[in-house]
Amino acid sequence: MSRFLIIVSFLLIYGNAGAQSGKQKKSDADEIKQIMMVLNNQAKAWSEGNLEKFMEGYWKSDSLMFLGSRGITYGWEKTLANYKKGYPDRSHTGKLDFEVLHLEKVGKDAYFMMGKFMLTREVGDTSGFFSLLWKKIHGEWKVVIDHT
Question: By C-alpha distance, which of 117, 119, 120, 110 is closest to 144?
Fold first, then answer.
């Protein structure tokens, strides 16, 4: 967990150096719109029970970090396997909704997001909070660190 905090702290401290011009602010609005589209597509895919499509919003790399109640999982494949194990069918996936509480640019191609998730499902509703580090990779916004 300390590695996660060090990375986020570094990005928060050093990522926002310099003032933004009007052009950069417009670009930021476009980037935020793109990130929100990925997040909305993830909620839709999850709610359809399509975990593979949900995972398209994550960086497909062994360096992806997911921090959950059981510790840190490294890698896209392992994260998907954990989701499949914890949410084996539609009664467990249910309907996913997100509420973004904070979204901040922390670097040239990086954003930090905090929010709340809500799962409405047959086996019992659940909710919680998350923090995500988004990075633009090959022109696409991907989650590179997830703390849920």
Answer: 110
Structural domain boundaries, residue 10 = 2-147
Write the pLDDT tens digit of every residue in 85-117: 999 999 999 999 999 999 999 999 999 999 999
| CB 15, CB 107: distance < 8 Å | yes
Whole-angstrom distance, CA of residue 73 vs CA of residue 24: 35
Per-residue pLDDT tens over the stretch 38-79: 999 999 999 999 999 999 999 999 999 999 998 999 999 999
Strand order in the sheet with 65-68: 71-74, 65-68, 140-147, 126-137, 110-120, 95-107
E strands in the chain: 65-68, 71-74, 95-107, 110-120, 126-137, 140-147
Provide the domain count of the chain. Answer: 1
